[in-house]
Amino acid sequence: MTTLAVYDIGNQKVSDIELNDRIFDAKVNPTLFYDAVRMDLASQRKGTASTKNRTPVRGGGAKPWRQKGTGRARAGSRRSPLWRGGGTIFGPMPRDYSFSLPKKVKRAALRAALSLRRQEGKLILLNDFPVEAFKTRQVLEVLRRFQVEDALIVTDGRRLYLERSTRNIPGIEVLRYEGLNVYDILNHEHLILLRPTVEKIEGALVS
Fold it and tell me: Which SS3 state, helix, strand or coil, does residue 2 take?
């Protein structure tokens, strides 16, 4: 078991906690990171790019000219892709870019990302992060004590004051443990976990 210190918001050590080595001391595999991040980014694509082929293009009801005798090439419709203003050949159409990875691969990638932040010494455990109102200044003061400017804060549930107080702080993101993912962990320099969150993460990833 790996032991890590737990701090309060004043950067004072409160206690120690034992972390599950299967989750916080797993092998770091860059291939898993690539697959997981690619999946997350693909799921964010809107896939709304659309062009008109010859079917929805306006016009083309009548044959432009007769088949023979004009000396020009045969033409059956003004909507032909060969004509200016005609349809597009093999253009982008609305589609879903998302794909899924096996559940074991997703969990392995998440364990590797958590282990990477612990090995780098950029995993911070807080006993609690109390915010009694929408106070951005209060959150900034806590982050300055830990010398953190870019961090992902993972909570054990809905914390409305904390979530809204960090909205206009560049580089700081608050995420509930259910939505924890590899992309957000790697996209921030530090990872801040609340003590109750550790237990819930271990419960979800221990299998």
Answer: strand
At residue 202, the 3 state secondary structure works out as helix
d(CA 9, CA 141): 9
Given the structure tokens 């559940």, which residue do they identify? 103
* Domain range list for the chain: 2-45+100-205, 47-96
Concatenated DSSP letters of 123-192: EEEES-----SS-HHHHHHHHHHTT-SSEEEEESS--HHHHHHTTTSTTEEEEEGGG--HHHHHTSSEEE
Supply the mean pLDDT for the chain: 92
Superfamily name and number for 2-45+100-205: Ribosomal protein L4/L1 (3.40.1370.10)
Handedness of CA 17, 21, 27, 32 (dihedral sign): negative
Q: Which helix (H) or strand (E) holds 16?
A: strand 13-19
**Bridge partners, residue 123, by sequence:** 191
| Entry pTM | 0.83
Q: Which residues of the chain have pLDDT under 70?
A: 207
Amino acid identity, position 204: A
> Can you give the pLDDT at residue 146?
94
